[in-house]
């Protein structure tokens, strides 16, 4: 069985072959998270489930699950002389139902996912993380969203300043990369194949290859941030790329800040975003009933992907936002700056105008704008639920002041009401160990079919 693999099933096979050894790998479990697909005649349930990201799993020798592939210093030199051999020699551990909760802080009651900020276990401290929606055991649920709408209930009431309980889509491969990269036979079942528009270089495995000390090697793909939020602030953003699909980048293509290539990479890292507070509406979203959208209660977040001619084939031209709370449909707020129109949705014109007003580089346009995002939606994207903290900017770009030395009276500098010294992970761990985010009621369908007007 040479040429195998990077997976747990292999470990189980070995266990069967060789009898019981130490450190037996665990059989993978997936959290129930059924969604509904809807059209004008109603909604149908799909038995979708949630899998946690591959990057946080233990990696063992596929031949002997008592031997870890990772050592204190890095990678076991025998198992991992190079990235491909390492992927072939090592197996990702499965996680059982108890492990999802006790190691990673993720639970389902059959309909609702709760995801904790901090979870202490014998493996150490787990800090939020990424969860992906599966259509079946080995395949992610691919969403093709042009001329459709996506709806999810979020509860951000237990997320303080500095945390981000996000809902987004990225153009991962449906099988997690198994067919593209033979050294990956674990696949979506084990949460492989993450990518995003920041072209992350920190991932342990990229394109079926364990990243053993390669520098400036990353993985890019289009990203659509439906919801990035805590109880103080929220925004929605699109990040498009000139590359198609799951795209391993090297050098300039990765758009690294360290090499001064922020705008030279394949993806629009800045994105184009609509955040109520940043658009100068400070009473729209917040943690009590005096706000139009009350973050102390669950919120139904509806996002509509409208095409120029109202067909599935037309170019994507607008991303509209609605909320539903207490049986009331709440319109998105409007841009509130002199000198630009009072837009209430994301369009290329909105992006151009606010970027010019804020003095930002219109990289979204250089990378193809909404039309290019629409092409990624046509190819299909994977749903990610993600809870994270921010070591580099303390989430101030979402909920505080950014840049830190910016003048708060300049348009676009104030992002939210959070203090400038909030969001520091060290303090957050002390002060908010019990923070969590809650997700439920994913619905997907034709325009106006997933909620009641
Ligand atoms: C959806 O509802 C809105 C508000 O009533 C309406 O303006 C729009 O035309 C509807 N769109 C479709 C495709 O039904």
Automatic annotation (TrEMBL):
One of the protein's GO biological processes: cellulose catabolic process
Q: Does the keyword Hydrolase apply?
A: yes
Q: Which SUPFAM superfamilies match?
A: Concanavalin A-like lectins/glucanases
UniProt entry keywords in alphabetical sequence: Carbohydrate metabolism, Cellulose degradation, Glycoprotein, Glycosidase, Hydrolase, Polysaccharide degradation, Signal
Which InterPro entries does the annotation name? ConA-like_dom_sf, Glyco_hydro_7, Glyco_hydro_7_sf
E.C. number: 3.2.1.4
Extract one GO molecular function annotation from the record: cellulase activity
Name the enzyme's class: hydrolase
Q: Which domain of life is it from?
A: Eukaryota
* Keyword hit for Ribosomal protein: no
Q: Where is the signal peptide, in residue numbers? A: 1-19
User: What does it catalyze?
Assistant: Endohydrolysis of (1->4)-beta-D-glucosidic linkages in cellulose, lichenin and cereal beta-D-glucans
Annotated family: Belongs to the glycosyl hydrolase 7 (cellulase C) family.
This one is known as cellulase
Q: Which gene encodes it?
A: GH7D
């Amino acid at each position: 069985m040479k040429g195998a693999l990077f997976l747990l099933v292999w470990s189980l096979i070995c266990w069967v072959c060789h009898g019981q050894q130490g450190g037996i790998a665990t059989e993978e479990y997936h959290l129930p998270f059924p969604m509904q697909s809807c059209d004008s005649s109603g909604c149908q349930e799909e038995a979708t489930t949630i899998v946690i990201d591959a990057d946080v799993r233990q990696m063992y020798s596929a031949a002997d699950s008592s031997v870890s592939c990772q050592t204190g210093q890095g990678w076991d030199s025998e198992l991992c002389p190079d990235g491909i051999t390492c992927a072939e020699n090592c197996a990702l551990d499965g996680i059982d139902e108890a492990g999802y909760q006790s190691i990673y802080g993720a639970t389902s009651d059959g309909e609702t996912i709760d995801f904790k900020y901090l979870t202490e276990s014998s493996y150490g401290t787990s800090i939020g993380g990424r969860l992906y929606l599966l259509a079946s055991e080995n395949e992610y649920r691919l969403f093709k969203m042009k001329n459709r709408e996506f709806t999810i209930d979020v509860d951000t009431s237990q997320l303080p300043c500095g945390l981000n309980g996000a809902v987004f889509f990225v153009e991962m491969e449906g099988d997690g990369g198994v067919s593209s990269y033979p050294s990956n036979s674990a696949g979506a079942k084990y949460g492989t194949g993450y990518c995003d528009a920041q072209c992350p270089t920190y991932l342990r495995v990229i394109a079926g290859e364990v990243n053993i000390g390669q520098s400036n090697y990353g993985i890019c793909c289009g990203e659509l941030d439906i919801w990035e939020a805590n109880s103080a602030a929220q925004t929605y953003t699109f990040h498009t790329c000139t590359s198609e699909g799951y795209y391993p980048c090297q050098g300039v293509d990765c758009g690294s800040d360290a090499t001064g290539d922020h705008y030279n990479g394949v993806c629009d890292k800045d994105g184009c975003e609509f955040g109520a507070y940043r658009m100068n509406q400070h009473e729209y979203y917040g943690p009590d009933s005096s706000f139009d959208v009350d973050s102390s209660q669950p919120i139904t977040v509806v996002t509509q992907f409208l095409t120029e001619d109202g067909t599935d084939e037309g170019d994507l031209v607008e991303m509209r936002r609605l909320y539903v709370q207490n049986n009331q449909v709440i319109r998105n707020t409007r841009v509130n700056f002199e000198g630009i129109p009072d837009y209430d949705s994301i369009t290329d014109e909105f992006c151009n105008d606010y970027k010019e007003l804020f003095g930002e580089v219109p990289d979204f346009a250089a990378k193809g704008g909404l039309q290019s995002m629409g092409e990624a939606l046509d190819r299909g994207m994977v749903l990610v639920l993600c809870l994270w903290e921010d070591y580099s900017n303390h989430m101030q770009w979402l909920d505080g002041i950014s840049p830190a030395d910016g003048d708060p009276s300049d348009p676009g500098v104030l992002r939210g009401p959070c203090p400038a010294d909030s969001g520091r992970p060290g303090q957050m761990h002390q002060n908010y160990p019990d923070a969590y985010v809650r997700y439920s009621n994913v619905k997907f369908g034709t325009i106006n079919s997933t909620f009641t007007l």
